[in-house]
Design a protein that fits this description.
Shape: elongated
Strand content: over 45%
Mean pLDDT: 77
Radius of gyration: 20 Å
Helix content: under 10%
Structural class: mainly beta
Largest sheet: 6 strands, antiparallel
Number of strands: 14
Number of domains: 1
Length: 198
């Protein structure tokens, strides 16, 4: 498997701070590219045609969003943001439609605290009559972090990622997987903080 990731950043709005009163709040919309890269599988060849509908793969990781500290020390408090979401642009060279769900999970009481889903799916690449990819498909999707999700971050020690895969035509079409298939992706964190100038 190959994977490449990089990062950078930018601000979408500017304010003239000399013209703002001391009591004002500002809410600039900001974009911070989180990472981009390529996913592929070297030496992969499945010598059979396969199809699947709603194949789910789960991965559990430590809650990397949780920050030690509480109250004003925690920058991910819901009241600090007018909006916060992850924007994902994908060029999918695999014949698989993909959707994702993130769950905040507390392992001590075995409870899911909050769930967010992608707003739409990453569409499968176009295939020929033999199930081989003829062209990659470009898609954009978002993961919106709700106020409930943000307020649940301190209550969870794990994040569960659930990926759901379908072959074309709702899992009814057969495909083959080849080593030259790639997924190119770019992500950005889009956020609008509520900045108090007092």
């Amino acid at each position: 498997m190959i994977l490449g990731i990089s990062a950078a950043g930018c601000i979408k709005e500017t304010y003239d701070l000399t013209r703002l009163s001391k009591d004002e709040h500002i809410s600039p919309t900001m974009a911070l590219p989180a990472f981009y890269g390529v996913v592929g599988f070297n030496d992969l060849r499945i010598d059979l045609n396969i199809r699947f509908s709603n194949l789910q793969i789960l991965d559990t990781v430590d809650n990397f969003l949780r920050i030690n500290g509480s109250g004003s020390e925690n920058p991910l408090r819901p009241e600090n943001y007018e909006l916060l979401f992850l924007e994902i642009a994908v060029k999918n060279g695999f014949p698989l439609k993909v959707s994702m769900q993130m769950s905040l999970y507390n392992s001590s009481n075995h409870l899911v605290k909050s769930i967010v889903d992608t707003m739409g799916s990453v569409e499968a690449a176009a295939v020929d009559n033999n199930g081989k990819v003829i062209s990659a498909t470009e898609s954009k999707t978002e993961i919106k972090f709700t106020k409930d999700f943000l307020s649940s971050i301190p209550k969870a020690d794990k994040i569960i990622f659930q990926f759901t895969f379908n072959t074309p035509n709702n899992g009814t079409s057969y495909v083959s997987l080849y080593p030259e298939y790639r997924i190119n992706f770019k992500t950005a964190v889009i956020f609008k903080p509520d900045i108090n100038l007092k």
